Amino acid sequence: MSKKYSIGVDFGSLSGRAVLVDVATGEELAVSVFAYPHAVMDEYIPGSSKKLPPDWALQHPQDYLDVLSHTIPNVMKSAGVSADDIIGIGTDFTACTLLPTLKDGTPLCFLDEYKTNPHAYIKLWKHHAAQDKANMLNKTAEERGEDFLARYGGKISSEWAIPKIWQVLDEAPDVYEKADRFIEAADWIIWQLCGVETRNSCTAGYKAIWHKQKGYPSNDFFKALDPRLENVVDEKLSRNITPLGEKAGEITPEAAKLTGLKVGTAVAVGNVDAHVSLPAVGVTEPGKMLMIVGTSTCDVLLGEKECIVPGMCGVVEDGIIAGYLGYESGQSCVGDHFDWFVKTCVPSGYMMEAEDKGVNIHKYLREKASVLKPGESGLVALDWWNGNRSVLVDVDLTGLILGMNLLTKPEEIYRALIEATAYGKRMIIETFRENGVPVNELYAAGGIAEKDAMMMQIYADVCNMELRISASAQTPALGSAMFGAVAAGAEKGGYNSIVDAAKVMGKVKDIVYKPIPENVAVYDKLYAEYKILHDYFGRGGNDVMKRLKNIKKSVIDK
């Protein structure tokens, strides 16, 4: 019997990547990456000279189709694998990444009449121009005593589906009227592959205020937001929500022509990049938190009961693995944090020294920072350069470094910023524990987790937990390939559940970062100081950060 393979495609913010995996072993045989030709459109859209307003972030759906047509044939060719032996395909996406379409799935931006209308394009996850709508939604929900707010840490984000849809309705009613569907890119790409509109429980639950037992908020709630939104669920969304791990359909003749896959190949229900990663590290049971560490960090965790945890991004039944409650939290600024420092604060002498040594500046700073002892710099920082996602849920908070003097060195600041993100992680973990959700083990995936041993050791020390790292450099794509194998089922050479697939295909590296007792003792003291600052500046003790923002805005607006 010939070997069987599955393909996972991970759609990120700037590129998509496919990985071809041996279903029997989890071995990754080939990877192909395709950069989006349109990238993130935050200034202009194609064919228009009109500048986009602040806080816009759009994408072009053609880029996603180009990912499929380039990467899937590439991995099959590279691995020397025939389409006959590909049993399934799974995909994952950033979220909430939303687009308006016709009832047949055609994106509105493909139509000549809407090509220069920005609202006809995809609103990427980091499109923040619907903040005013999110504010009004939260205020209305609070006044009405809507119980769903608590399941999302007390606030619905401007990044999520309803604020984005409402922005289209308010600013481009003709686009709203023309759109038969507003759909997550995660679900749209599945529609293109198998010709069936399927809405996954992950994006519906975390990004569109859907609940497995209660459904969406009432039509009365949407009417209270805007009378025109009263029937938004039935007119523009769908109440048919499919659990993760299900088969969405099979590759159509059109999709076969696009991808090189065989007609009839199983297609898994769509998923989200962070959430699909959990089984890829072999985690399918409660109590184990996975951090996907990149420009920002997303945390995912399974639980056996629905607990209300302040500041979480959401709790969704079947939101990660069917049969469990899936919890999500995160930090808005991690890799972005370090990138900001390198681009704006590192002296030219350091840059030249790094160049002379033939290493990039991040590696150079890590080398210098790694010889410092915890507490040696006398610094403590808050990790809010891009606001706070969890547990304060406040985009208007800003960064802070305390303890600097004329002897403070760049590597000390760099390390303090890394430590700040670790303190933020400990705050999240402690908040989950305090509210009835166990966190007993810690895992990490993503580029930074792969490359930065110093940072991972700091996390182990600050959180006083052993830390394990994903064995795959393409964790989301591997997770998607695993769901592709589940969509195919055991009869076709795959698996009947993601739990079964994870036992074989999900893996972590042999290395384990263990807490160093003397470091833990110092970090306990530093974390206590972080917590004081966190509560003072983040919980209303001193709103100086927001006052400074308002002063800045008043000056700029003059």
Textual characterization of the structure:
This protein is an alpha/beta fold and 558 residues long. 40% of the residues lie in helices and 18% in strands. The protein is built from 20 helices and 22 strands. The strands form 6 sheets. Strands 1, 2, 3, 5, 11, 12 and 13 form a 7-stranded mixed sheet that branches. A 7-stranded mixed sheet has the order 16-17-15-14-20-21-22, with helices on both faces. Strands 4-7 form a two-stranded antiparallel sheet. Helix 11 packs antiparallel against helix 14 and helix 14 (410-434) crosses helix 16. The longest helix has 25 residues, at 410-434. It starts with a strand and ends with a helix.
Rounded average pLDDT: 96
Mind telling me the C-alpha Rg?
A: 23 Å
The helix content is: 25-40%
What is the strand content? 15-25%
Find the structural class using helix and strand composition: alpha/beta
| Backbone shape | globular
Largest sheet: number of strands, sense, barrel closure: 7 strands, mixed
Distance between the termini: 73 Å
